[in-house]
């Protein structure tokens, strides 16, 4: 096996990773012999990485209109070959997500870079992040919650995505800023370590020509207050994924408002937790955005 963290999967794992129901996978096995699972002493199905790769390819072909009865007749090497032939703009997103999943499950940097290079030849970095990386990271959260992947898998793929973000951000940081009416200060609350969304916002704001001050994770509000001595018109941006906890959320927003707001300052929030913010009575200097795209459109 490629690694000793998770290289054998249950049928539920395959369902979570492919989107194909376990019941359907069993039917495909019984009728068409598309996968040959290993069996435990108690007759429980187990699958290896090759089976996962095959199922992900079959899923793409099936989504594209190929019948399972037809796919089942193909020789072993025909399926990946056919997948490569039919990949178009329509299917590139789902294929790339599948390839990145396989790179993650195998801890395979080469596959990650090959898939990324294939995408960047046709798409901008912005398109890759919005169309592929964000859906991928959303899926990873669900896979982690269901024990399909380990924290090691999530950290591995997150680090590689972070690398690409840093490389593309640096290209913008060396350019002269074109808009000087406001400065964006980007930070995360204390104990919030999910940084990719905020890092991408930094990239988008730089792309628009603004100056950004990127402070990253676990930033005390008192430290944010220090920034106000250096700049006049500031928008503080926070990306709320798991912190603060829901019952502390409104108190955190209120404390930020008390410490930071004045006529030249705004507070902007996005991320998974913003749906739980009580919007009633919020200052008109506080803006809530339901997505990265919505926030960028509001700049």
From TrEMBL:
A Gene Ontology molecular function term of the record: DNA binding
GO annotation, biological process: regulation of DNA-templated transcription
Pfam families assigned to the protein according to its UniProt record, in alphabetical order: B12-binding_2, MerR_1
InterPro entries named in the record: Cbl-bd_cap (IPR003759), DNA-bd_dom_put_sf (IPR009061), MerR-type_HTH_dom (IPR000551), Meth_synthase_dom (IPR036594)
CDD domains attached to this UniProt entry: HTH_MlrA-CarA
Boundaries of every HTH merR-type domain copy: 8-77
Gene3D superfamilies the UniProt entry points to: 1.10.1660.10, Cobalamin-binding domain, Methionine synthase domain
The name this protein goes by in its record: MerR family transcriptional regulator
Lineage summary: Bacteria, Pseudomonadati, Bacteroidota, Flavobacteriia, Flavobacteriales
